[in-house]
């Protein structure tokens, strides 16, 4: 054919044939192009910056640093690799199985026993805080014997497979308080608790009767449950359109957070020790503690100062513990100190009462005006000095001062968000710049379109099997907002090296936390059904190995769970062979989305 074509050009014969061939080629290209799904224009809303979102808003239209291309044009087509080439690249990573009796439930930054043993003090729960190993996890965690696909939501709220979380200690330890009961192949959660003598549903109703302005699911939307146990309080509040960030440390209450996540209830591992919680200022509408075993009066009141930092002005602290309603000397001493500290913090008691089982409850409210701070005779604790609060809670020590009330660009105190569900799509009070507000609405519109046109139907995801979702680079939580009508919940993660948008996420009535993806996340293995990443890896790979991040994703994700990545061509081509090495199925969609599905495969050789 090459010789014939050359003769045509030399002798200028049959020009009409050349024209006809060119026409056929052009039509063929058009037909091939039209068989490809329409692409969504690619742009990255949250570019790397050291500035706070309140100071300089991100632009939704910033181009990707690499590779550079017109973000309004379709991205380059992904080169399809042969099966042989994929297998060749996949075997370059020789995965081994982690060994040891604790490998099944290993959490690298909480199970670093070498660092924990070297601690000079455990007085302030230092041994329950993060101590990440220098080297990232290089092996894959084994599955529990008999592990199977989790019980689907909403049935999972009340029962889970025992073999998936085979920890019987709490069954015996809390049998009189009805936290959890073993029944055949299942662990059953009757809705009991230390303070829930008549059941958690009765307790929730009692709280609203004690303070009607709570208005579950309207005025109070985002709650923090401290020392949550198996998170039944947060699980039952979901029926009230309230989303609760339940947290507890990894302690002698064996696997309580693992139980919560297996049930499909939002939860994380954390502790109030020497460091700030990884949440922004003025985040929660209510903070709840029911016999949570935190010594609020300790260390001059620093634990309470931390609650004050993350509680929204006008928000409530609901405390149900023995110092509230018992008259013995020890409890009354604690109560006296609490009265002194909360008064100095300008908190006021707005309600108290006892339920039919004799359980007492007191509800405090954080002030909505700075006048009380200014009128205190003794300025103890002092107000913290204003400073850039960008990701300030990541590995930061607890303050000995009170965080000032948040103000807007005009110096006025920020208002309470709109009632739920209006607050989801209304202007967040923490967005101070008009340009940032415009970008917020553009981002919401973009994700609504993407989820409707691509994620819902176009990525071959079985959404009926999805309950626990994590957005690894959440931005304004547009992805989570677009999923709001599905029976899922989303942990919105704001990485420490991108724009700090976490306050906006809480303003919207959603939950999330800060994290550094060059470290391990504070969760048990196999606790999420779907991990989502939008333009995250191009930043992460500048500081750490992309293979290490994938190993952490494999640890977090349950078998048959999904990883969905929206990123540049370069990143997608880097991820594909790594995921193949894990025996995941991988598919590419619209030349810009990668969907990986984790299998039940585990290596046979140990590290």
From TrEMBL:
Molecular-function annotations in GO: methyltransferase activity
Residue span of region Disordered: 58-83
CDD domains: AdoMet_MTases
Pfam families named in the record: Methyltransf_29
Superkingdom assignment: Eukaryota
A cellular component term, taken from the record's GO annotations: endosome
InterPro entries attached to this UniProt entry: Put_SAM_MeTrfase (IPR004159), SAM-dependent_MTases_sf (IPR029063)
SUPFAM superfamilies (alphabetical): S-adenosyl-L-methionine-dependent methyltransferases
Membrane-crossing residue ranges in chain numbering: 14-32
Subcellular location: Endomembrane system; Membrane
Protein EC: 2.1.1.-
Single biological process term from Gene Ontology: methylation
Claim: Glycosyltransferase is one of the keywords in the record: no
Major localization class: membrane
Keyword line: Glycoprotein, Membrane, Methyltransferase, Signal-anchor, Transferase, Transmembrane, Transmembrane helix
Membrane topology designation: Single-pass type II membrane protein
Family: Belongs to the methyltransferase superfamily.
Protein name: Methyltransferase
High-level lineage: Eukaryota, Viridiplantae, Streptophyta, Embryophyta, Tracheophyta
């Amino acid at each position: 054919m090459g010789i014939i074509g050359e003769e045509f050009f030399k002798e200028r014969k049959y020009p009409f044939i050349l024209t006809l061939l060119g026409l056929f080629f052009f039509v063929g290209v058009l037909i091939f192009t039209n068989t490809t799904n329409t692409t969504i224009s690619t742009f990255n809303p949250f570019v790397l910056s050291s500035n706070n979102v309140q100071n300089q808003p991100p632009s939704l239209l910033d181009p990707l640093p690499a590779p550079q291309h017109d973000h309004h044009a379709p991205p380059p087509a992904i080169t399809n690799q042969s099966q042989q080439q994929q297998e060749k690249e996949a075997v370059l990573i020789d995965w081994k199985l982690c060994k040891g009796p604790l490998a099944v439930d290993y959490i690298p930054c909480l199970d670093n026993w070498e660092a924990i043993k070297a601690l000079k003090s455990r007085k302030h729960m230092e041994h329950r805080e993060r101590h990440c190993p220098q080297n990232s996890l290089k092996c894959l965690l084994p599955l529990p014997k008999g592990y199977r696909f989790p019980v689907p939501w909403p049935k999972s709220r009340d029962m889970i497979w025992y073999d998936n979380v085979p920890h019987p200690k709490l069954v015996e330890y809390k049998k009189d308080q009805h936290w959890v009961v073993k029944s055949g192949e299942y662990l059953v959660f009757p809705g009991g608790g230390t303070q829930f003598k008549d059941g958690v549903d009765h307790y929730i109703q009692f709280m609203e009767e004690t303070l009607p302005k709570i208005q579950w699911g309207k005025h109070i939307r985002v709650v923090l449950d401290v020392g949550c146990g198996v998170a039944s309080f947060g699980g039952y509040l979901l029926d009230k359109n309230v989303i609760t960030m339940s947290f507890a440390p990894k302690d002698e209450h064996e696997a309580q957070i693992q139980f919560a996540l297996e049930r499909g209830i939002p939860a994380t591992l954390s502790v109030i020790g020497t460091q700030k919680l990884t949440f922004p200022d003025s985040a929660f509408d209510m903070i709840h503690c029911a016999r949570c075993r935190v010594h609020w009066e300790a260390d001059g009141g620093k634990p309470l100062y931390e609650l004050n930092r993350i509680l929204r002005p006008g928000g409530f602290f609901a405390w149900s513990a023995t110092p509230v309603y018992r008259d013995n000397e020890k409890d009354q001493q604690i109560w006296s100190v609490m009265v002194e500290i909360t008064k100095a913090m300008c908190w006021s008691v707005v309600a108290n009462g006892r339920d039919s089982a004799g359980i007492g409850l007191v509800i405090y409210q954080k002030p909505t005006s700075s006048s009380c701070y200014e009128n205190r005779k003794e300025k103890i604790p002092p107000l913290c000095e204003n400073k850039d609060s960008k990701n300030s809670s990541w590995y930061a020590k607890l303050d000995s001062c009170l965080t000032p009330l948040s103000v807007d660009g005009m110096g006025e105190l920020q208002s309470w968000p709109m009632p739920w569900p209006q607050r989801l799509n209304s202007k967040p009070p923490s967005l101070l710049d008009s340009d940032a507000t415009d970008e917020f609405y553009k981002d919401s519109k973009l994700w609504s379109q993407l989820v409707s046109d691509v994620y819902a139907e176009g990525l071959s995801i079985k959404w009926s099997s999805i309950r626990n979702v994590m957005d690894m680079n959440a931005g304004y939580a547009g992805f989570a907002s677009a999923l709001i009508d599905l029976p899922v919940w989303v942990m919105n993660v704001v990485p420490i090296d991108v724009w700090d948008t976490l306050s906006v996420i809480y303003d919207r009535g959603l939950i999330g936390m800060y994290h550094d993806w060059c470290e391990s996340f504070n969760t048990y293995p196999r606790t999420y059904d779907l991990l989502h990443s939008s333009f995250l890896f191009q930043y992460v790979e500048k500081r750490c190995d992309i293979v290490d991040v994938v190993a952490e994703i494999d640890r977090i994700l349950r078998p048959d769970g999904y990883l969905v990545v929206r990123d540049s061509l370069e990143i997608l081509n880097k991820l594909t062979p790594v995921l193949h090495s894990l025996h995941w199925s991988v598919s590419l969609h619209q030349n810009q989305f990668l969907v990986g599905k984790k299998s039940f495969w585990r290596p046979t050789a140990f590290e």
